Amino acid sequence: MTAPPAARRPLIAIPARFSATTSALRYAAEVNARALIESVWRAGGEPATIHPYAPGGTADPAEVAARLDRFDGVLLPGGGDLAPHRYGHADAHESVYDVDDAQDGFDLEVARRALRTGLPLLAICRGLQVVNVALGGTLHQDMGGADREHRHLVHPVSVRPGSTVAVALGAERVEASCYHHQRVDRPGAGAEVTAEAADGTPEALELPGAAGWFAAVQWHPEDTADRDPANQGLFDALVRAAGRR
């Protein structure tokens, strides 16, 4: 794919992830994975990391709306776990990690706003879980221990023919690079599982009749997008949809 001139690149908002330490900075940082940024750039988009602002764990819907108005699309990336209370669990499993109330509150409001307005949205790993919770769905806090979780795992995923994800991938089967110990339990309102792993783990969610282009995948397509056209296709589809706005 030949990228358009920089001035015409659709602007893609990517909420930052909080990092306690980074190798190049002296203090805590807000970051996004380089492979993720490069995948959006390769697709012809202009990736823009944005600050997750949600004092007390609650983002102002009007403020989020105003901030997103300048963008052509949104990418919700991977990251730490959502706080279990966000989906109805009073107690956290011992494996839950890197919970941040501001991150949760901001990501959830971004997901709601994008889905409500039809702003093109690609959600990855934690991003898929955020969307599911934003729609009222629930998560398994832990998939069952080290012998059942999907960490440092590349495995085949079967995708529903004709689904948004299958069209973006150009395939009904994909090699998926995964890193997660949680998964969807109950899909949120209107959400459909359109891809699964061999063990039954939901690997993609879609919203039939969504206001705009939307796809969510549990795996990390950015891990292999530089050498796998199918995984790069998810970023290409997001940027194409953003360009049409």
Mind explaining what this structure looks like?
Keywords: Hydrolase. The two termini are 20 Å apart. With 245 residues, the protein is α/β, with parallel strands linked by helices. The protein has one domain (8-244): Rossmann fold, CATH 3.40.50. It has helices at residues 34-42, 61-68, 101-117, 126-134, 164-169, 229-244; strands at 11-15, 17-19, 29-31, 46-50, 73-76, 121-124, 139-140, 150-159, 173-180, 183-184, 192-197, 202-206, 214-217.
Summary of the model, kept short:
Pfam families: Peptidase_C26. It contains six helices and 13 strands.
What fraction of residues sit in β-strands?
Answer: 15-25%
Q: Count structural domains.
A: 1
The general outline is globular
Tell me the CATH architecture.
Answer: 3-Layer(aba) Sandwich
Per DSSP E runs of 2 or more residues, the count of β-strands stands at 13
What CATH calls the topology is Rossmann fold
Please identify the structural class as seen in this structure: alpha/beta
Which features would summarize this protein structure in a list?
6 helices; globular; 27% helix; two-stranded antiparallel sheet; alpha/beta; Rossmann fold; 245 residues; 13 strands; nine-stranded mixed β-sheet; single chain
Strand and helix layout:
Blueprint: E1 11-15, E2 17-19, E3 29-31, H1 34-42, E4 46-50, H2 61-68, E5 73-76, H3 101-117, E6 121-124, H4 126-134, E7 139-140, E8 150-159, H5 164-169, E9 173-180, E10 183-184, E11 192-197, E12 202-206, E13 214-217, H6 229-244
Parallel strand pairs: 1-4, 1-5, 5-6, 6-13
Antiparallel strand pairs: 2-3, 7-10, 8-9, 8-11, 11-12, 12-13
